[in-house]
Each structure stands twice: as structure tokens, then as C-alpha cells.
Amino acid sequence: xxxxxxxxxxxxxxxxxxxxxxxxxxxxxxxxxxxxxxxxxxxxxxxxxxxxxxxxxxxxxxxxxxxxxxxxxxxxxxxxxxxxxxxxxxxxxxxxxxxxxxxxxxxxxxxxxxxxxxxxxxxxxxxxxxxxxxxxxxxxxxxxxxxxxxxxxxxxxxxxxxxxxxxxxxxxxxxxxxxxxxxxxxxxxxxxxxxxxxxxxxxxxxxxxxxxxxxxxxxxxxxxxxxxxxxxxxxxxxxxxxxxxxxxxxxxxxxxxxxxxxxxxxxxxxxxxxxxxxxxxxxxxxxxxxxxxxxxxxxxxxxxxxxxxxxxxxxxxxxxxxxxxxxxxxxxxxxxxxxxxxxxxxxxxxxxxxxxxxxxxxxxxxxxxxxxxxxxxxxxxxxxxxxxxxxxxxxxxxxxxxxxxxxxxxxxxxxxxxxxxxxxxxxxxxxxxxxxxxxxxxxxxxxxxxxxxxxxxxxxxxxxxxxxxxxxxxxxxxxxxxxxxxxxxxxxxxxxxxxxxxxxxxxxxxxxxxxxxxxxxxxxxxxxxxxxxxxxxxxxxxxxxxxxxxxxxxxxxxxxxxxxxxxxxxxxxxxxxxxxxxxxxxxxxxxxxxxxxxxxxxxxxxxxxxxxxxxxxxxxxx
Amino acid sequence: xxxxxxxxxxxxxxxxxxxxxxxxxxxxxxxxxxxxxxxxxxxxxxxxxxxxxxxxxxxxxxxxxxxxxxxxxxxxxxxxxxxxxxxxxxxxxxxxxxxxxxxxxxx
Lengths: 622, 107
Prior knowledge:
Chain A is an alpha+beta fold and 622 residues long. Chain A starts with 20 loop residues before the first strand and ends with a helix. Chain B is 17% helix and 43% strand. Chain B is globular and about 35 Å long.
């Protein structure tokens, strides 16, 4: 008979209607799946009791696919078909991926996202990730005894729209129903119960196998705001192994080790590193292919010494993140440790020293993200009473906006707005009789389109012809709970509509996001300048166009000499538009306005006369 | 007679309650639903209702409402592992037949 779990009071599920929900930490190096069972979040293990699934996929000649440890073993033998760290390629174009030249894969640049040519055909990162998710889904279904209702999948806080969409697509492809994408630092904070505990600023220090992320979170009434993120995309526990490995080569005077020896020694290096978490010395014993043996003892002090600069490499981004958030260490109420590498005592010491407080370490740092995701999944699946006070809100990492005339960005949804969110803004036509309008959606903090990331473009056609400024086009930006954007535009008088779900062609790199945030802070002054300039340029252009149209239509109303004066003013203003001084342009606009005032008044009089004697005019014209 | 927990089941229940941080015991009952007429209710109990019948096995309180008792009289709740899956299992002597998965039953 079926195996049952204990439910919360009053929440026993009807037979065959268990709401089985899991949380998945889809990591760069390792992935995990967790669930809430009998009221407790637990990580689900495989048949032999292992929690971690290495995020490695190997495509085989016979069409088969190995995932996890099986694929890991083949990494050295079949590097081209064994994909590691596929997360780095999610939602990225070829040019977005750093160090692509040092990777053993056969890359193929494709529309939107890079592809990998393997022995089993061309694969997209979405497909590769789906293989990992499929294994986790099968593990979860075997462990929970039924089909899953849904899953919460975690993503780095700095993941942009393209990367989130790619993650969601991978989940769909693997047969998972995504309840929510959740920011990794937010998941870690949930696992520590910070969501209901407290308000305040928390730092999440995530040192994984190959990546380092620091996030500064602000918690208030269940809202998780990501104040700043920073990190190093190529720093992690593996670098510590590498240091120990180099030390071993030095000490044992080994030169040019074979591939096989390198692998063996790296494994020993990792073992020694892990041993030093609980001990002061670690013996290193290895037998080389040549039959030679290596016998060394690694002392904790030596280890700390050879990895000192790796530790300081984490503190740089940490400092920057705090600075970007406009905070100091004294503002931080707690530090959450995430990632296996934070088990190392010297890492914990350095973090404690920097933040002047002991970091939170009582949960397994490798599991904490998956556990938090599982707890959130449990709530979203409806397995928890009083879920209202568990309402959890995330925020969007970068502002979303639209291009307006002159290459300016009109921000529609500002950065750090809680999601889901929908905002509408009215725009209008720029020219008389304009019947179409194109929309360019951008993401970023800067004032000029050129400095932000382009996400998508679409067009609204069929606007009834009207004078400039008369059409009312309501543009609605909607970001769902996963942080994915859809935009719709509607002309209010005629009801014509157009919309787009943003599946941006390229993602932003972490550095780009960090860089864009930094730029926006550094360039606040410049940007205001640039904005003023563009605004005046647009205004001046509009004025010149209007005056010229008026002259063309009613030129006979001009007094002698007046035309020459106005044309001179226009020429002068044109010159100023080409310059960079917005004040000069403004002065030119005022001056042209003044020069045309009388002319405008006469035109007005004439049109009033025409209106009064309308019939005649029409008859005359006919 | 009454309703009992196997030693293994009791250990797990006690452990879950401790980790959950609250609860006086486990509530066992039946609901009329499911493809074979009735199904089990297995929940944490935050407080005992006045009409509850309370059993105790291996130090864990088992709460049963009087209406459910006739259907589960004599039941032993066990904790089992089947492959990767693990959970509680009802050994109920009153069951005449049950649906394929055993989640719902008839007496």
C-alpha cells in the first residue's frame, strides 16, 4: 500500500491528490532536489545515498545520456561530449560567454543562445539542463511515490530575463511544472527562517564549486529586496583544490604529471582540503602511474597560507556589493553561508572578521538553497496552513523601460520593484498622421538606450491618423512572479493592440549587470546631462519642424524681413542642436519662439477668421 | 486494542514533532472519500479535542476521534522504506478491500 506522510492539521490530502512539490537547486557544479516531508525540509538522495548530482551531462554515440557521477567519470576521456557547468551558457549568446576559447566544446553560434555540437547532435544549453532536471525529477518521483505537482527552481539573483526564461524552458522540457523561479540567496534566507524572523539587511555569501556570489538582501514584511549582488564567476572550491595540487607538485618535486596523475592528485588535494575542515593536519598519500609514491602532510597553517589570496578575492566583491547597496558592515544583521566551500574554517574566519559577527552555518551550506526552495514549493503547492504570512516576494534586478524619442529611456518599472507587478504608462505619437509606433524594450539603469540592454522590439500598427500628441497609447509592462516580462500596447481611442512576451535574444553577463549598476551610480551626473541635452534636442527639432510647416502653409502671412529673421534663427538653432550644450539649445528655442510669436499670432487670427466664416473659406478653396 | 504505533513509526513521529517545534502527538482518522470509499487521515495534532480518544505507544500520543475509531480499531501504524520512497503504512485489520495503491479502502 501507499506510504503516507504526516500532514499539517486539517490538510490531509484526498487519496491520489497529494500535492508533491519539490525545490531544485540547479547549480553550476552540483544540483540537488529537496522536499518537505512530514513537515520537515529534506534533501532527496539517490539509490546509494548521495544528495548531490554533479551538473554534468555526457552525450554518447549510441544516443544514450549519462548525467551526474556517471558523466563525471568520463570527463577526461570524452571532454567534447561531456558538458560541465552548462549553467554558464543558459540564455547566453556566443559573445556573452567568457573564456570560450579554453573550453573543449564545439560551439555553434545560433539565434538567441549558443549551441553545442555533440556526438548526439546539436544541443542547446536548455536541453542539457533539462537532462539534469529530468534525473532530479525521476529521483523525486521515486522518493515521493507519485507524480510531482510542481517545482520551485532557484536561479542566481543577477540572472536576467533571458537566463530565467531559459531555466524555465529547461524545466518544461524535463516535464516539470514550474511553480516559481526563486533567487538563490532568497532561498538560503528562507531555509534559515529569516523570512518570518526579522526585518533588516542580510548578506548571503555563496562560495560554490566554481562560482562566488555575494548578495545583500533587505527583508521587510516578507519582501526580499536584492540591494546589490557581486561576485566572481570563476572562483570556487575547485581553486582551493588547485592550490593544494600545486603545493603537492612543488613539495614532491613532480614535473609534467600525466593526465591520469593530475586527476589522481587533484582528488587527493580535495580530500586533504575536506579533512582540514575538522582536523589540523591532513596526510596526503598518492601512488603515481610510474609507481612512485607521494607522502606528504598538509598542515592547516600551510593550507591557509597557500589559499590566502583566494580568500581575499572573495572580500573584494563583498566590499563592492556593500558599497553598491550604500551600506557598511554595521548595517548587516546576519550573514548566511552557502556553498560547500564555506565549510573551510579559514573562509568562515575571514567572513566573521569582515562582518564583525559569526556567520550562520548550522545548516549544511551545500543544501541550504535546495531546502529553502522546497519550503517555498510546499507553500505554493498549498500544503501549509496560514500560507498568507508566508507570502514571499522577490524583486526585479534591473529597471525595465522603453525607448522614447531621442534614444532616451523611460523607465516603466524601476529596479527592485516587488514582483509580480504590472505598470502602465501612456505614450503618444510624435508626428501628424502617424499610424504606427515601434516599441523598444530595454533593461538597465542608465538614461540612454545605448547604455542599456535591448530586450525586445515590437510594433503597434493601425493607429488612426491624428495630429501629433492626440493619440493615447497605453503601454503595459507586466512581470510575473518568475521575473518574466510581457509588454502590451493599446491605442485607447481605436482599441488596436499589440503585445509581446519578452524572450530576449541575448542575456546579460554577470559582469555586465554589475557593470551597468556601477555605471549608473557613477554616471548619475553625466546621465542627467545627457538626458537634458537629448530632451532639448528633441524639443528643438520639433519646433523647427513645426515652424517650417507653418511657413510652408502660411508663408504669405510673413512680413518682409520676417522670413529672413526666422530662417536665420532656425539655422542658428540647427547649429546648436549639433553641439552638446543643452542650455544653448534651450536659449535658441526661446529665441526662435520669440521670433515667430507675431507670425503665430497672425496665423491664429487667420484660423479664427476662417472658422467664423468657415463656409466661405471652404467654397473658396473648392 | 486501540490504535498503536510500531516502535520505528513512533521514533519517526517523535523526531518529526521535535523538528517541527510543536504538536502534542499524531492524529489518525478516516475520511469518506477516495475510489474505494474511505481514506486515511494522518496529521500532526496541535491540541487534543475534548472527544478525542488518546492512545499512547512508545511515548507518542495517538489521537483518534470517536467516529473514526470503529474503522481503524486494531490498526498498527508502521514506518517503511520502499526503494527511495519512505513513509507511514497502515496495517488495518478492518479492511475488506482497497484500491490498487491502498490509499483508500472499504470495511
